[in-house]
Specification:
Layout: H1 5-28, E1 47-54, H2 61-80, E2 88-95, H3 100-113, E3 118-120, H4 125-130, H5 132-138, E4 142-143, E5 160-161, H6 167-181, E6 187-192, H7 195-209, E7 217-221, H8 229-237, E8 242-246, H9 249-261, E9 267-270, H10 276-283, E10 291-295, H11 303-308, H12 310-322, H13 330-349, H14 355-363, E11 390-395, E12 398-401, H15 405-416
Parallel strand pairs: 1-2, 1-3, 3-4, 4-5, 6-7, 6-8, 8-9, 9-10
Antiparallel strand pairs: 10-11, 11-12
Helix pairs in contact: 2-12, 2-13, 6-7, 9-10, 13-14
Length: 438
């Protein structure tokens, strides 16, 4: 008697998963003949190969491209200077389009076929969260992801090296200012309906609960779409004083324009993953929306950053060398700092490079300056290097550092007195809102 179709499909999926697990285990236990001269995957006498899956197309492509540009600006300079411990760093980059199944397939290819030493600078929560089982199974380090997701931090995992502050830290700091400094108690949340959005929503809810509050409304949209109308309507019905946004730049910009067109004059706040330069580009230089964004690195295009912080100056200089057409931005700076931590770990691990020695080397980093005032530190049970959160304010096309929350209150008071004017939504519907290549 044959196996019924549903059970046959289930069996085939199970066998496929088992086969992948067997191959991944082989990658980590020294049985493969394809290893480099050192006996470690991805390591030869003159090269260390690392792998990266990130969105180079789709709604998050701006983040993927800028993260990659920042990382390559530093890695190119390191290679031009001779590499690390006599080895050049080779980066294999695959596009996942911000799609979790594609990210999993890319990661399997990088580990099994490309035999990379480690993974590096992934972008996005829904994608990166899906590869955690592969990291654990193959014992492959992942260094520096562009996501503040809690799942990459707790429970502690030896093979995940975070650099940036978490979304919980971003939203907690934002809520403290929104409630404490601005005096608001009616806060709504617009979030992307996936692991990223849920993480930001939970962080906001936790921060509000600690102050005896809860969101007055929650609205969502589906990842990869611009369908924010229903979520915006639900939020506006609750008459919030501030709207927290956990999404990507295109949908968040559309939500802002919809709300403003319907007369909303309150505050918008967005987490770092939204992408400051991109949402600023979409909103345009004539837009006066009261919009705050948290950042996990200092904005590199501000005079106070460029003049005082050596890491920002290094990033701008090396970005101009490798990508002269690009302007420094917070996303690229984060990729640049990811690369600095990666290279410092390789340097400390030395010539006898293995994955475990590399992780030991990362854990030995303490008060390591990356040139942004906040030093990077790790230890054996703590794998997040930075903790600080910065705040910026949208000001007619550009973001400025927030240094005076009293000034934010003045801006909001002035905005509330304005007569609502219908806002054009051209360029904020469909694919056009995402900009070229997104």
């Amino acid at each position: 008697m044959g196996i019924p179709t549903p059970y046959r499909s289930r069996l085939m999926r199970g066998l496929a998963a088992f086969a992948v697990a067997v191959v991944l285990a082989a990658c980590s236990n020294g049985s493969s003949p394809e290893k480099g001269a050192s006996g470690t995957p991805g390591v030869t006498n003159d090269t260390v190969t690392i792998g990266c899956s990130l969105p180079l197309t789709g709604h998050a492509s701006y983040l993927g491209k800028q993260t990659l540009n920042g990382a390559l600006a530093y890695l190119n300079a390191v290679n031009e200077a001779g590499g690390v411990a006599g080895r050049k760093i080779k980066l294999i980059t695959l596009d996942d389009g911000y799609d979790p199944p594609r990210c999993v397939a890319n990661t399997q290819q990088l580990i099994v076929e490309d035999r990379v030493f480690c993974l590096f600078s992934y972008v996005g929560t829904p994608t990166t969260a899906k590869i955690i089982p592969l990291l654990d199974e193959a014992r492959v380090p992942l260094v520096g992801s562009f996501t503040g997701a809690d799942v990459l931090r707790f429970p502690f995992r030896r093979y995940i090296i975070n650099i940036r502050a978490s979304y919980y830290q971003e939203t907690a700091a934002a809520v403290d200012h929104i409630v404490g400094d601005l005096g608001f108690d009616r806060v709504a949340v617009l979030y992307q309906y996936d692991a990223y959005g849920f993480d930001g929503l939970k962080g906001t809810e936790m921060a509000l609960k600690s102050l005896g509050l809860a969101p007055v409304a929650r609205g969502s949209y589906i990842r990869g779409t611009m369908d924010v109308e229903e979520g915006v309507g639900r939020i506006l019905d609750a008459k919030p004083q501030a709207v927290v946004m956990i999404g990507t730049s295109g949908p968040c910009a559309k939500a802002i324009k919809l709300a403003r067109a319907r007369g909303y004059r309150g505050l918008f706040y967005a987490v770092s993953f939204v992408g400051a330069d991109e949402i600023g580009r979409i909103l345009g230089p004539g837009n006066d929306t009261p919009l705050l964004m948290s950042q996990v690195v200092p904005p590199p295009d501000l005079p106070e950053s460029a003049a005082l912080l050596t890491g920002v100056m290094d990033y701008a200089r090396l970005l101009a060398r490798s990508f002269p057409e690009e302007r420094p931005n917070v996303v690229g700076l984060e990729g640049f700092l990811n690369a600095r931590v990666l290279v410092e770990g390789l340097r400390r691990a030395g010539r006898e490079l293995t994955r475990e020695r590399f992780l030991d080397a990362i854990e030995s980093i303490s008060n390591f300056s990356v040139g942004i005032a906040s030093p990077v530190s790790y230890d054996k049970d703590r794998h997040q290097g930075l903790e600080r959160v910065y705040f910026t304010r949208f000001d007619h096309g550009r973001f400025q550092m927030v240094t005076d929350w009293g000034r934010i209150k003045e801006i909001l008071a002035a905005s509330a007195k304005l007569t609502p004017v219908p806002t054009e939504l051209d360029g904020t519907s469909g694919a056009a809102a995402a900009g070229p290549g997104r």
